[in-house]
Amino acid sequence: MLIFIDTNIYFDHWFLKSPQFRLLASYCNRTSATLLVSQVVVEEVEAKYAAKWNEFEQSLKDLPRRFEDVGADKTHLPPVPPKPDYAFANVLRHNFNNLEILPYEGVPHKALVEWAIHARRPFNDKEKGYRDALMWHSLLGYLTEANRVSPVAFINANSRDFHDPTGGSPRLHPDLLADLAEKKIGNQFLLYPSLRAFNEANANGSIAGFDAVEFSERYQSEIEEAAEESVLAYLNGLRPPMLRSLLTDAGCPARVAQSVHDASWQIWEGVEDFSFLSFTSIDKNKLYIAFEFNIRILELQIEMSPLDYLANQADLESEFLNVEVSEQRATMETYVRCDFKAGMIFNTTNEGIEEISIDTADIRQKKMMLPPLGRVYSD
Q1: Most C-beta atoms within 10 A of its C-beta, which of 77, 83, 193, 346?
Q2: Claim: this prediction has a pTM higher than 0.85
Q3: Exposed/middle/buried for 63, CB within 10 Å: 0-12, 13-18, 19+?
Q4: 119 and 213: one domain?
Q5: Among candidate residues 143, 174, 201, the one where a domain is terminated
Q6: Secondary structure of 19-39 in the HEC alphabet?
C-alpha cells in the first residue's frame, strides 16, 4: 500500500509522537507500506513549526512583564532555549522505514495557471489551491514514473477541494479522476478524512491471549483520570476554526459560532460510558489502545466582541447564560455533554500511560443550556 497524507494531518504533530502516528509507523514498518510525502508538504510543515516556535519564544519574552504585574521574583524566570534544528524530512525518515519524498519542481507552471483560471480541482472558484495543486501533481508524477499499482490511501481532511461533492461515499472529485485517466494511472484511491479513520480500517489489530477484562479492571480508573486531563488540554487548546466547527456541528448558528474568538472549558462531572475499542501491539512492550467515553457535564465559556453579541443577542440569550458585557468583550457560558474518541500508548513494562491523544470531540446536538437549581443534567 502507498499512503499519502496532506499537510493538515501533520499540524501540531511535529515529531510524530502522538498515538495515531506511532500506530501508523508501526503498521507501515510491519507491512512494508510506503509513506509518500510531497516536498511541498515538508516545506509547509517546517514553516508552520517555525511559526509555532516563534509564538512560543514570544510567550517566554513576555513573561518578565507578567512577573512584574504580580510582583513575582524574576530570578525564577525560565531561560529562552535555543531553537532546535528542525527538519521534517529527518523526522519522517526516523519513524518510517519506507519513505518517498516527492519533488514538485517538474509540475508545469503554465498548466497550473490554466487550472486555476478554470477552477479545476484542487483549485476552487476563487483561484485558491496552489499548494494543493503542487501536492496533487507531485503525487501524479510519482505514480507515473514509479509505475506502482498498489492502492493509494489518501488521508486528507480537506474534502472540499479533493472529494466529489455529489457522492454519498467518499470518492475523488471528477477533475482529479480525469487527471488519473489522462495520465493512465490505474491505482485504486482509498479516501480517509483523518489518520484515525485510516488506522481504524487498517492498522488496529488484536493481540492473541490478551485479557481485556483484566486490563480494564486494573487500569481503567487511572486511564479515566488521565483522559479528563487530556480533554481539558485538548478543548482549551482548540484553535478558533476548530472551535467554531465544533459549535456549528452541535447546532449552534453559524453566524454565532463565527463570532466566537476565545473559549475556556471546565469539567463539572467527569467520564461516563467508557469503553475500550481495540488493543494493538506496536512494540515489544508498547500497546496502542483505542477507547471512547463522554464527559457528562462540561462548562463552556465563550468570548466575543460586544458588537457581535448585540448582533446575535436573541440567539445567544436562548442558548447561554451569565452574560457579561463590557466595553472590550462579552462573555457567557453554557453546559454541555461531549463524546470523545481517543487513543493512547501504554507501556507494559512499567505499566504506565505514555501519552493520550483526543482524536474526535462532539457536543451532543441538544439545547446547550444549564437547567436550574444545582447544575442537574438529564438526558
Answers
A1: 346
A2: no
A3: middle
A4: no
A5: 201
A6: HHHHHHHHHHHHHCCEEEEEH
Distance CA 99, CA 29 (A): 10
Q: Which residues pair with 171 in a beta bridge?
A: none
Counted residue by residue, the chain has a size of 379
Are the C-beta atoms of 32 and 98 separated by less than 8 Å? yes
The pLDDT tens digits of the residues spanning 142-164 come to 999 988 889 999 998 876 667 66
Residue 137 pLDDT greater than 50, yes or no: yes
Containing 248, the helix (H) or strand (E) segment is: helix 240-249
The residue range of the domain holding 112 is 2-201
**Per-residue pLDDT reduced to its tens digit, 26-72:** 999 999 899 999 999 999 999 999 999 998 888 888 888 888 888 88
41 and 57 share a domain? yes
Cβ atoms 290, 276 nearer than 8 A = yes
Residue 48 counted as domain residue: yes
In a shared domain, residues 174 and 276: no
DSSP state at residue 281? E
Rounded to an integer, the average pLDDT of 198-204 is 90
Neighbours of 245 (CB within 10 A): 13
CA–CA gap between residue 320 and residue 314 (Å, rounded): 10
Cell numbers at 301, concatenated: 465559556
